[in-house]
Amino acid sequence: MKKTELLSWLREEHQHWEEFLDHISTGRMELPGVNGDWSMKDMVAHLTCYQPWVTARIQAAAHGAPEPLPPWPAQLKTDDEINAWIYESNHDRSVSEVLNDSRRVFQQFFAVIEELPEDVRIEELQHGERVFYLVWLGDQRYPVGEIFDHFHDDHESDIRAWLAGVENQ
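Now predict its structure.
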């Protein structure tokens, strides 16, 4: 795969994500029940929170800089602890703030991917019907589609079930 193809795939996935979010009215974005007490706004913040770190890690590797620290406090080690911190850090933000932040984060990510060399090594991993893309910088690989993979694999079916339920009310 070439970098241009990777960028096309990433932009297409992002377009599907935006279309999916557009389907959910702003009024529904704060309804709980998407994942326990979490609302769709909370899910967007959850998915978005990891992306700046992925972006910063790729950018640092591309420039030979040290790997940046994650955005959450160092004492948080488990996914549950990190996810609780993300929830608490974002729950009181407005829907528009969370959505605008998500869009800004994606634009920054695309800009970093565009800066990579044209001959950057991109690995495709087939897992069942899914394909995962990894960018290699030096001897490190970076899951450039992680936000979409995480959404599709871990959250999409629950969100669609929740959405079907609220649309039928």
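Strands lie at 121-127, 130-137, 140-143.
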